[in-house]
């Protein structure tokens, strides 16, 4: 039988506020345990939550970015369950009246096709603390620094049909929240994490199968692998005459498998009700319009502009608009050097290659956008050739000199275009290599093209890479051919 | 709708209330009286009336996004039964 996978995602984006959603505690990552947990975050009696204005603004801006209906009136509710890292015994969340209504997000697949994924809604809620299960005298350690950190939970419709689509969707969400600056999107630190709902159905069938939910997957790679595993598991189960049970599962990257979390199943009755401590949230049209005015150019718009205005290929445009850091870096390089295609080549080629190799993010690139722009500018105006440019890049990477011009000057890499100087070097190389000259002269005319490479190499070496390669080629060819 | 003995025990369990089975009977009766009143309220025609999330005619005030709290860990942990390395310790949670 042909099976079709149906996937819906719940993406939790930690909002980049200074303070928590309902208290004035700091949200800085990595602080000493429980030093950023106030009386409100601890759920101590007598405390009351007060909603953070920025959290509301960020949620609204996300809604506007995905063309969603922003609710003028939304309500916080209590989701009741007991767990030690949730001191109040409930999570303050939204369910029946979330702040962001239905929207739509376009995803771009590897083969260049586009697909619209519907967003069911997005709501504000608070994060829980962290349980540390290492052995503390046979007990569990609780750090409540994260408790009360604002989250935007973005819930998709079950419109995704493959692991690749799911990853493309999460990447699109990641791009949007980082472009908006409402989340740092750091998956390793848990700023963006994802619950994956998966079910299978025979191809062509309308009704959905029973779904399993994989909780808290925190990297693009794990999302893809968890889905692959779960699809196989469900197909095997059904084809062996079994049934998928609705349950929560956990993806274990070490074993590369999903496992049932039966412990949490039994109490899955959250008894939502409106939180009496928080009044309904009202945002008026004027405020929404004001926030609309603060939206930056979004990834899809940027991609389109890179293609149409800058003449980049669809592939280049999508890579360079993939993250805000990448796009900003590229645009600065382009601004300095004035050549979009060269800028695109250098950012995606030499720079990205070196960053990947050293496992660095572009935000901490040792070569700044201004420096790279200055370097590319000197290629564009033919001050240096491509070979010298790579030397300059490596020097800048190693912190040698503050600008490309400085490195070009100190290393004497300025391209030699003076034909007299080039001819002198060419004559010297011909005089120093009589055997190769004879070989060249005896070779068939159509083989000579290849053999000239040796002489070009010698000339470039003698000129320490500064000779203009096109000129060297021409002078060499003229001289060698006139000898015979 | 009427509650049964098992519903009350389940609600007590969800709320982590220690309720002895023999005590549940009294709660079954009390809660059913409350639900009877709710049934009566349900009779009222509410067509065209928006659901009410809060009885006050007021909306949520927002606070500026500023850090106003300082570290009071030592203070809070004085009442904790067990702590270590700044963590609150609780009976082992098995996943």
From TrEMBL, chain A:
It catalyses: L-glutamyl-tRNA(Gln) + L-glutamine + ATP + H2O = L-glutaminyl-tRNA(Gln) + L-glutamate + ADP + phosphate + H(+); L-aspartyl-tRNA(Asn) + L-glutamine + ATP + H2O = L-asparaginyl-tRNA(Asn) + L-glutamate + ADP + phosphate + 2 H(+). One of its GO terms (molecular function) is ATP binding. SUPFAM superfamilies: GatB/YqeY motif, Glutamine synthetase/guanido kinase. Signal peptide: none annotated. InterPro entries: Asn/Gln-tRNA_amidoTrfase_suB/E, Asn/Gln-tRNA_Trfase_suB/E_cat, Asn/Gln_amidotransferase, Asn/Gln_tRNA_amidoTrase-B-like, GatB, GatB_C_1, GatB_Yqey_C_2, Gln-tRNA_amidoTrfase_suB_CS. Allows the formation of correctly charged Asn-tRNA(Asn) or Gln-tRNA(Gln) through the transamidation of misacylated Asp-tRNA(Asn) or Glu-tRNA(Gln) in organisms which lack either or both of asparaginyl-tRNA or glutaminyl-tRNA synthetases. The reaction takes place in the presence of glutamine and ATP through an activated phospho-Asp-tRNA(Asn) or phospho-Glu-tRNA(Gln). Heterotrimer of A, B and C subunits. Belongs to the GatB/GatE family. GatB subfamily. This is Aspartyl/glutamyl-tRNA(Asn/Gln) amidotransferase subunit B. It comes from Cobetia crustatorum. The gene is gatB.
UniProtKB/TrEMBL annotation, chain B:
This is Aspartyl/glutamyl-tRNA(Asn/Gln) amidotransferase subunit C. Heterotrimer of A, B and C subunits. Keywords: ATP-binding, Ligase, Nucleotide-binding, Protein biosynthesis, Transferase. It is an enzyme of class 6 (ligase). Allows the formation of correctly charged Asn-tRNA(Asn) or Gln-tRNA(Gln) through the transamidation of misacylated Asp-tRNA(Asn) or Glu-tRNA(Gln) in organisms which lack either or both of asparaginyl-tRNA or glutaminyl-tRNA synthetases. The reaction takes place in the presence of glutamine and ATP through an activated phospho-Asp-tRNA(Asn) or phospho-Glu-tRNA(Gln). InterPro entries: Asp/Glu-ADT_sf_sub_c, GatC. One of its GO terms (molecular function) is transferase activity. GO terms for biological process: glutaminyl-tRNAGln biosynthesis via transamidation; regulation of translational fidelity; translation. Its EC number is 6.3.5.-. It catalyses: L-glutamyl-tRNA(Gln) + L-glutamine + ATP + H2O = L-glutaminyl-tRNA(Gln) + L-glutamate + ADP + phosphate + H(+); L-aspartyl-tRNA(Asn) + L-glutamine + ATP + H2O = L-asparaginyl-tRNA(Asn) + L-glutamate + ADP + phosphate + 2 H(+). Belongs to the GatC family.
């Amino acid at each position: 039988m042909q099976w079709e996978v149906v996937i819906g995602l719940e993406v939790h984006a930690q909002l980049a506020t200074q303070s928590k959603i309902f208290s004035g505690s700091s949200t800085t990552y990595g602080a000493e345990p429980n030093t950023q947990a106030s009386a409100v975050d601890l759920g101590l009696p007598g405390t009351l939550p007060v909603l953070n204005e920025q959290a509301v603004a960020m949620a609204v801006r996300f809604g506007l970015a995905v063309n969603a209906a922003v609710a003028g009136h939304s309500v916080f509710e209590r989701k009741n369950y007991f767990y030690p890292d949730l001191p109040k015994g409930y999570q303050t969340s939204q369910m029946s009246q979330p702040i962001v209504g239905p929207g739509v997000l376009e995803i771009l697949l590897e083969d260049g096709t586009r697909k619209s994924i519907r967003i069911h809604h997005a709501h504000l809620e608070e994060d829980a603390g962290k349980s540390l299960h290492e052995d503390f005298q046979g007990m569990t350690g609780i750090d409540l620094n994260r408790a009360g950190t604002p989250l935007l939970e973005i819930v998709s419709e079950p419109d995704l049909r493959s692991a690749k689509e799911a990853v493309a969707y999460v990447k699109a969400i990641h791009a949007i929240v980082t472009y908006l600056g409402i989340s740092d999107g750091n998956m390793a630190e848990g700023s963006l994490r994802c619950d994956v709902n998966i079910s299978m159905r025979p191809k062509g069938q309308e009704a959905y199968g029973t779904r399993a939910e994989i909780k808290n997957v925190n990297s693009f790679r794990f999302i893809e692998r968890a889905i692959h595993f779960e699809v196989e598991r469900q197909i095997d189960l059904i084809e062996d005459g079994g049934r998928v049970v609705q349950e929560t599962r956990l993806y274990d990257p070490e074993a590369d498998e999903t496992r049932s979390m039966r412990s949490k199943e039994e109490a899955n009755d959250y008894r939502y009700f409106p939180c009496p401590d928080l009044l309904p949230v009202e945002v008026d049209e004027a405020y929404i319009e004001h926030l609309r005015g603060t939206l930056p150019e979004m990834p899809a718009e940027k991609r389109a502009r890179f293609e149409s205005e800058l003449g980049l290929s669809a592939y280049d445009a999508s890579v360079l608009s993939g993250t805000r850091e990448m796009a900003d870096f590229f645009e600065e390089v382009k601004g300095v050097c004035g050549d979009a295609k060269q800028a695109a080549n250098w950012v995606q080629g030499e720079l990205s290659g070196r960053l990947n190799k050293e496992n660095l993010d572009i935000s901490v690139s040792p070569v700044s956008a201004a420096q790279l722009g200055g370097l590319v500018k000197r290629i564009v105006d033919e001050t240096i050739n491509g070979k010298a440019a790579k030397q300059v890049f490596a020097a800048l990477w190693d912190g040698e000199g503050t600008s490309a011009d400085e490195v070009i000057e100190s290393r004497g890499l300025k391209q030699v275009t003076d034909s007299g100087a080039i001819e002198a070097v060419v004559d010297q190389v011909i005089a120093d290599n009589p055997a190769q000259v004879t070989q060249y002269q005896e070779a068939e005319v159509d083989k000579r093209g290849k053999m000239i490479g040796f002489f070009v190499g010698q000339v470039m070496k003698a000129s320490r890479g500064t000779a203009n390669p096109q000129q060297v080629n021409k002078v060499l060819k003229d001289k060698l051919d006139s000898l015979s | 709708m009427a509650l049964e003995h098992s519903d009350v025990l389940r609600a007590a369990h969800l709320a982590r209330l220690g309720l002895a089975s023999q005590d549940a009977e009294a709660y079954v009766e009390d809660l059913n009286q409350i639900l009877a009143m709710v049934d009566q309220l349900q009779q009222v025609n509410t067509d065209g009336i928006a659901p009410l999330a809060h009885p006050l005619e007021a909306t949520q005030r927002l606070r500026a996004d500023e850090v106003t709290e300082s570290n009071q860990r030592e203070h809070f942990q004085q009442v904790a039964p067990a702590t270590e390395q700044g963590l609150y310790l609780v009976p082992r949670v098995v996943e």
